[in-house]
Design brief:
110 residues; four-stranded mixed beta sheet; 28% strand
């Protein structure tokens, strides 16, 4: 578990609650990052989380997410459309060279 893994480090582990805002102030972080997280939640939750990531970010949200999910237990989302709908600016969209179906998307806060 994460608490055991981080025990030796000086890292505070904060767990969020499902369907609740992230437990951080607006603009709390310079960058908010996910990797393979949003592809495991349905669209409604992914949109909520994208909105929350923008809220707690001062400037950037960086996603490393699977866009061509082939496993029925996972979801494929159009993150460009999700963030565009939130008036955020997509500054970069590139394929992840290490994972063939993953892309790295950099979003700048409006």
């Amino acid at each position: 578990n994460a608490r055991d893994y981080l025990k030796e480090d000086q890292v505070e582990l904060i767990l969020g609650q499902e369907n609740k805002p992230l437990p951080f102030e607006d603009n709390a972080f310079d960058v908010v990052f996910t990797s393979g997280v949003l592809c495991i939640v349905p669209l409604e939750k992914a949109e909520f989380l994208c909105n929350e990531m923008l809220r707690v970010s001062r400037q950037y949200v960086v996603l490393n997410e699977d866009l061509k999910v082939q496993d029925l237990r996972f979801y494929s989302h159009d993150f460009k459309a999700i963030f565009t709908q939130m008036n955020a600016h997509i500054t970069s969209l590139e394929r992840n060279p290490h994972f063939s179906t993953y892309v790295i998307l950099v979003v700048e806060k409006p």
